[in-house]
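Lest this sound abstract, we let one protein speak, letters for residues, whole numbers for local backbone shapes, and leave readers to judge:
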Amino acid sequence: MKITKSQLKQIIKEELEGPDEYWLGTDHREVLIKGYGRMTVDQIKESLRQRLSEMMEGATNKDFSFLDHQMENGVFVAMYEALRDNDALDPRANPDEVDPDWERN
């Protein structure tokens, strides 16, 4: 099955505009982002969502120059690591009741 550029753009748009509850729940824990500062888990997730959206838009337009900006200063990776280190990657997990059977790979 072939997919047109406009169809791909529509799919990406729908995915990015999907329900925010996947990304934004009620996790207001403040965590440290190494070399950057403190943010709540929800703020980190929203910032990563926006950055990923920009990356997808650039990739769709075959413009990869934006990667230097996103990856050079290390904030993107630091935000991901802050989520990982605080067990905030699993969208099912409530910060107050983490599933003991869920294992981080």
Q: What stands out?
A: The mean pLDDT is 77. Strands lie at 30-33, 37-40. Helices lie at 5-16, 41-60, 66-72, 75-85.
